[in-house]
Amino acid sequence: MSAGAKKRIMKEYTECMNDPPTGMKINFNEQNMTKWEVLVDGPEQSIYAGGHFKLEINFPNEYPFKPPVVSFKTKIYHPNVSNDDKGSMCLGLLRADEWKPPNKVVAVLRLIQTLLIEPNQDDAIEPSIANEYKENRKEFEKNAKDWVKRYAK
Amino acid sequence: MDSEDDFNSSQMSEDDFAQDSDVEIDEGKDAESARSSSCDASDTWTVDSDFDDDVGFESQDKDIKPNKHAYEVDFNVFEPSQIQASQHKQIAEVSSILVQPPEATAILLRHMRWNKERLIDQYMEKPEETLESAGLGQDAATNPPKITKIQGFCCDICCEDGPELDTFAMRCGHRFCVDCYRQYLYTKIKDEGEAARIRCPGDKCNRVVDSKSLDLLVGDDLHDRYQELLTRTYVDDKEKLRWCPAPNCVYAVECAVKDRELPRVVPTVHCDCGHYFCFGCSLNDHQPAPCSLVKRWLKKCEDDSETANWISANTKECPKCHSTIEKNGGCNHMTCRKCRNEFCWMCMGLWSEHGTSWYNCNRFEEKSGSEARDAQAKSRQSLERYLHYYNRYANHEQSAKLDKDIYLKTEKKMQQLQSSTGMSWIEVQYLDTASHALQQCRQTLKWTYAFAYYLARNNLTEIFEDNQKDLEMAVENLSEMFEKPIDQLQGLKVDMMDKTAYCNKRRIILLNDTAENLKQGNWEFNVALS
């Protein structure tokens, strides 16, 4: 990774520390600054309230020319998070063709927060969950809360 | 150029290329030499290879071409420099009509997928909107792009600042340091293979990076790749152009056959690299079967053939409910799990007629048994029919591979012949010609079986089957000769050449017949040609 990229990640980290997004805690390790661990509290107004989710943000070597890679380490019942051991996300800013180099991680974190409050049903990675979200909101909420209890306490 | 009149439009585009090659004489020469070296000796019998060599230079050749066969289509082969030249020509032309600089015109054309008429119409009606949607914003004409140093600037990507920092921005004003801009373009072009629609790196900005800005920022290595990608999108966007799918082939083929004509014609084209492929679907030559049947057949084979073979070999159907049953051991007293029908596995008759003491069925003549067998035979017929065609199809595919193996040995034989008998290189070429003919005929035969599978029975079918039989016999006869030992080969030269010529002739007859009837819609298929 180039010196420029490192400098940029450092700067982004400082910015995040000065004005941290609500309900998020970033674990930063100077030895390995390309991997951030983020602890996210389920937003109060969302069905994920009360849950604590561990996220991993990996910066590719080409950062910031390629987007960071986000994965949920805590299982979550959500149309935009893959329901496997990767917990990957791939929408909006996180797609290579949408990402622009001036975009910041903080924008990614905000995007995640918005998605926790309101999932994006049109760009789902889990079609069956998205369908349930669309057709049978009650069932979806029940499952999501169930998973929060089971995995995210 | 995209007018409905196919003949005119193809003539026009040829003239385009003809003129282009006049302008760039060097490239034209290169094209010539590249062609003659790739022209392989074994095709001497195909008429089309004669005029391929002059394609794009003397278009009237095509008109005086002697008796084109019904199964052949007109096509031209172009090399990358010619395709590039043709783009430049169109850009220059539209540029003068729209009164926009060539860079902007190029972006507009690419944005409109090279539909000139639509671009001109749309631009004349709503110039502002057209420019905006192509990512050009207003007045692209003034102020050429340049690299500048700006006081107090801080790059939003790498966070570098300082008065000595070189910066760049397009008309949209999203300014970044030159290194970051360059790195951005590098990532887009090298890693993501984008070219025609790279957007400004600025957040949410849709302005497209034009080639002049690109020239300013990137080095030659990236520039070449960029041009290559642009040419690639050009060919992809043009309905009449298609890349040759052969590995490492750089040529593109132009053919006027449109998608909607595909049920009536099988447009096999022959690239200068030697590869024969279908212009409609890019698969290997599949004459005489039309693209939609080929697609259907391949899917069926993928899904069915192994399963069908197994079912045919290992199962029977319940005489009552026709469920497929595999006998996995035990006695011949079968009870269908689905309909509870009890029958005998051997004769398929009702078990009740067997009495209690029969555990070896020898009641072949019984009526209920024979009826059940008849019914079974009928329902198995469609399966057997499919397997009949599939096995022959697969056989020719396999044989073509074997023929190829033999040919590789033949190449050695040719060398041996040369040294042992003192024949010259040219005198042993008949083996090469024969092998090539064999490959091509097997390819055709293979597809006749897929074709026949979907063919409904009528008088035409019988003529077709006769043609198929004749070609098959000719091919087998020729194929057999390849297995002869080396010392006999010399004496068989005349015979072999005769048989080769006969194979080729039978193939042409078959293909002409199928193509002619396809064009006139005479074939009846048992599925819809879509």
From TrEMBL, chain A:
Pfam families: UQ_con. Residues 4-153 form the UBC core domain. Transmembrane segments: none annotated. InterPro entries: Ub_conjugating_enzyme (IPR050113), UBC (IPR000608), UBQ-conjugating_enzyme/RWD (IPR016135). Keywords: ATP-binding, Nucleotide-binding, Transferase, Ubl conjugation pathway. The keyword ATP-binding applies. It is an enzyme of class 2 (transferase). Its EC number is 2.3.2.23. This is E2 ubiquitin-conjugating enzyme.
TrEMBL record, chain B:
Residues 1-52 are annotated as: Disordered. Residues 1-25 have a biased composition (Acidic residues). Coiled coil: none annotated. It catalyses: [E2 ubiquitin-conjugating enzyme]-S-ubiquitinyl-L-cysteine + [acceptor protein]-L-lysine = [E2 ubiquitin-conjugating enzyme]-L-cysteine + [acceptor protein]-N(6)-ubiquitinyl-L-lysine. It holds the Pfam family UBA_ARI1. Gene3D superfamilies: 1.20.120.1750, Zinc/RING finger domain, C3HC4 (zinc finger). Transmembrane segments: none annotated. Its EC number is 2.3.2.31. GO terms for molecular function: ubiquitin protein ligase activity; zinc ion binding. One of its GO terms (biological process) is protein ubiquitination. Residues 151-365, 155-204 form the RING-type domain. Keywords: Metal-binding, Repeat, Transferase, Ubl conjugation pathway, Zinc, Zinc-finger. InterPro entries: Ariadne, ARIH1-like_UBL, E3_UB_ligase_RBR, IBR_dom, TRIAD_supradom, Znf_C3HC4_RING-type, Znf_RING, Znf_RING/FYVE/PHD. This is RBR-type E3 ubiquitin transferase. It comes from Massarina eburnea CBS 473.64.
